[in-house]
Design goal:
alpha/beta, 8-stranded mixed sheet, binds S-adenosylmethionine
């Protein structure tokens, strides 16, 4: 497993650095601000403003530290009344417990999901006003059973310059076929070639203002 170092970012939150790629998991301008702006505000919140599902399915490619998932769960608790499922894909999960003990996670995100991640659980059920389940299972994507199954995809692979295979037409077609009609794909990435690949894969592509310190991000819709 590659060495990951905790790195502070400009908004006071932390990210990890993947030494083998010389790349951080989030923006150095603010990890939490980036996650909140790209994935919650322009992904999940946007979808729920346009749709009123009783059941919501989210897929995250590149689950990493789980920051996006923890923010999503908090958002859903406060803004959603149905049931939800969140599938995280991550071939190299970090040591969540070690991150927790090093103060990686802000106290606003402490709760049952983080506790369960720290215990090594891969299927975490949350009960309450809006019950949900978080599943970490790499066999669920790409797979036949993922086709037309998700409403929102958080596409959080390493940058196209570092992990080009994740941004090819073929990879993005897999994401396209995993979405329901009306579904939303969202990413921090803003590269022109990647956007052309998204179009080739069948998406309607939108350029949006990026999080602090970044000019643009990308949202893509399956119309
Ligand atoms: C930019 S970081 C994601 C940050 C993460 N969402 C978070 O909040 O911490 C990219 C992640 O993609 C993961 N990754 C690498 N190859 C992958 C693959 N083939 N499929 C899915 N995830 C992959 C990396 O291990 C890393 O955790």
């Amino acid at each position: 497993m590659a060495i990951q170092e905790i790195v502070p970012t400009a908004d006071g939150s932390f990210t990890l650095k993947a030494a083998h790629l010389d790349e951080t998991y989030h923006s150095r301008h603010g990890a939490l601000s980036e996650s909140a702006h790209v994935f919650i505000e322009n992904g999940l919140k946007y979808f729920l403003e346009k749709n009123t599902p009783s059941r919501l399915n989210i897929l995250e490619i590149g689950f990493g530290t789980g920051l996006n998932a923890l923010l999503a769960e908090k958002f859903l608790q406060e803004n959603f009344n149905g049931t939800w499922q969140y599938v995280g894909i991550e071939p190299f999960p970090p040591d969540f417990r070690a991150l927790f003990h090093q103060g990686f996670y802000p106290s606003s995100l402490h709760g049952p999901i983080l506790e369960a991640l720290c215990q090594g659980q891969k299927k975490i059920e949350i009960f309450g006003k809006n019950s949900g389940i978080l599943i970490l299972d790499n066999s669920l994507w790409p797979s036949e059973s993922a086709q037309g199954r998700f409403d929102v995809i958080f596409y959080d692979a390493f940058a196209p310059s570092k992990q080009p295979e994740m941004w090819t037409i073929l990879s993005l077609e897999k994401a396209f076929s995993s979405l329901n009609k009306g579904g939303v794909w969202v990413s921090y990435a803003a590269q022109g070639a990647m956007r052309r690949n998204l179009k080739q894969a069948g998406f309607h592509v939108e350029k949006l203002p990026g999080p602090p310190g970044k000019r643009e991000m990308t949202r893509a819709l399956k119309l």
